[in-house]
Specification:
Blueprint (H helix, E strand, L loop, with lengths): L3 E4 L3 E6 L18 H9 L4 E2 L9 E6 L2 H12 L10 H4 L1
Antiparallel strand pairs: 1-2, 2-4, 3-4
Length: 93
Amino acid sequence: MLEVLYQDQHLIAINKPAGWLVHRSWLDRHETRFVMQTVRDQIGQHVFSVHRLDKPTSGALLMALSSEIACLLAQQFEHHTIKKVSCDCARLC
């Protein structure tokens, strides 16, 4: 089970563990754990990726709960009206 950081009627943000792929990929055909599949099974609803984090990276991962919202968020990332940022959490404590 993945930790849900935020969820509303349009979005879900989860804490992606290091070592997990966001979605199935030919880059790692032998992997069996995928964030999108796990979240879908966990909440009983299809999820749509709007950005990704590399497999070795942990952190907050935002997903849309509809294709329309995913499209809007992807456009915002593309136009830099929203962006991903790195954070040194130890520095924040």
